[in-house]
Amino acid sequence: MMNKELLEQGLSGYEAKVEKAISKFPERKEFAEKRLYTPLDVEDFDYNEKLGFPGQYPFTRGVQPTMYRGRLWTMRAYAGFATAEETNARYKYLLEAGQTGLSVAMDLPTQIGLDSDAELSHGEVGKVGVAIDSLADMEKLFDGIPLDKVSTSMTINGPAAVLLAMYVAVAEKQGVKPEQLKGTIQNDILKEYIARGTYIFPPRPSMRLITDTFAYCSQNIPKWNTISVGAYHIREAGASEVQEIAFAFSNAMAYIDAAIKAGQKVDDFAPGISWIFTAGLNFFSEAAKFRAARRLWARIMKERYGAEVPKAQMLRVHVHTAGSVLTAQQPLNNVARITWQALSAILGGIQSMACCAYDEAIALPTEESATLALRTQQMLAYESGAADTIDPLAGSYYVEALTDKFEKEAYEYITKIDAMGGAVAAIEKGYMQSEMAAHAYAYQSEIEKGTRVVVGVNKFADDKQIKTNDVLMADLSVAERQIAKVNAMKAQRDQKAVDAALAKLKTAAQGEENLMPYLIETVKTYATLGEICGVLREVFGEYKQSGSMF
Question: How far is CA 166 from CA 78, 152, 357, 411, in A?
Answer without folding.
Answer: 20, 13, 29, 38
